[in-house]
Amino acid sequence: MVKKFSLDKNKINVLLLEGIHESAINAFKEAGYTNVEYLKTALDGAELELKIKDVHILGIRSRTNLTPETLEKAKKLFTVGCYSIGTNQVDLKAAKLQGIPVFNAPFSNTRSVAELVIAEIIMLMREVPAKNAAAHRGTWLKAARNSYEVRGKNLGIVGYGHIGTQVSILAESLGMNVFYYDIEKKLNLGKTVTCHSLEELLRVSYAVTLHVPETELTANMISAPQLAIMKKGALLINASRGSVVDYVAVAEALKSGHLAGAAADVFPYEPGSNDEPFVSILQEFDNVILTPHIGGSTTEAQENIGVEVTEKLIRYSDNGSTIGSVNFPQISLQQNKDKQRFLHIHKNMPGLLKDINYVFTEKGINIASQFLQTDAEIGYVIIDTESHLSEVILQELKDVPHTIRARMLY
Q1: What is the pLDDT of residues 300-336, one digit of tens each?
Q2: What does pTM read for this prediction?
Q3: Is 241 considered catalytic here?
Q4: Active site residue: 258, 293, 303, 396, which one?
Q5: What CATH number does the domain containing 140 carry?
Q6: DSSP class per residue in 306-374
Q7: Is 402 an active-site residue?
Q8: Could you confirm whether 270 is annotated as catalytic?
């Protein structure tokens, strides 16, 4: 049986902002979505609100901010894809309470970030940034003093997740001794050693690299007290979030010579476009590598992200699957052969499932299968029925008290 979707795919409006890789466009079109609009820039304010008014699926990167007010204006929007690791640019709770699952790409650029971190450690160990800067000014600094191999050195990884473990694998293959600290218990890879506190890791490491999310716990987790614990002549690399490092304290540690060098790919305040100026307290130091948030900016990573996020958006649009969503109860269900499928998102209130089921049972319609998941605030149910009902029943589902959103897929 060929499925007929309640809303034809050529009527589903897809908007991709910020120059998302063309692999996303191709994936949508291969899945039958023909109405795909693509913009290379971010949008904000009234321009963004106007643009997404009739959009069903929205794809963004890191510069488009979706506030509760913006989401409220997008009445037709039913899912958002963040073509990035982070989702800080979206108010996730507001999206959830409006029945909008948000998807991201937590895996696709891990290798790209890990390779940059390893390259920066090698360059800093050899004092390449300072010697490069001197060479550009006509000074020849040929010397082996304070230049070291990474082999046999201790690397400390703060945050042993997807990126941290990739850094661990690459570092160990270079002969480094790898230590890590994470607030959650993790499986050690290779000969990696677990540290039981951040302070323990800082004391043993010649180079420290950070791979943690932006939370209240991680805000300024590396500041003057932590830098003082680090070995004299140690290195600090931050490719996670700009808020996790106190760069004023880092500047002081560089001036005093306590830190031999640093690398920063992320900053508390970053330009919104390439046309805006970039200012950092670390710009005065030749022994610091500054990069414009490009850890995951490789062709391979962007292509992989384009495919990974788009596939999640398509699965939700086609089947109702929320696996991989960062703000929604997780349900995975394959497309059925001959049943009709409804999605219902509602406030998590006692007795609501009974009210939803009554819409079908009072008409003598058999519910073939039903999958419900809840969190503290919402419930999400997928219902397959042995029926071929018109959209009249969809309105009845929307009229159930405490309904946030209801869709008939096919």
Answers
A1: 999 999 999 999 999 999 999 999 999 999 998 767 7
A2: 0.81
A3: yes
A4: 293
A5: 3.40.50.720
A6: HHHHHHHHHHHHHH---TTBSSS--------SS-EEEEEEEE--TTHHHHHHHHHHTTT--EEEEEEEE
A7: no
A8: yes
